[in-house]
């Protein structure tokens, strides 16, 4: 038997069916990963905002109000 005797559509169909069966699981995995990334970014953004606010407070406290 030669390699050309195998029908590519037969193997492709079997792979497609397996992929379709896994599609919901894969989508769930990716959505979960995306949610985790967004959660991490939100936490980092909040921490950065707090730090920035602290720095601004220190700058404002360091300024002499009578010099204005």
Automatic annotation (TrEMBL):
Keywords: Cytoplasm, Nucleus. Its main location: cytoplasm. GO terms for cellular component: cytoplasm; nucleus. Residues 1-12 have a biased composition (Polar residues). Residues 1-21 are annotated as: Disordered. It is found in: Cytoplasm; Nucleus. Belongs to the SPOT14 family. This is Mid1-interacting protein 1-B.
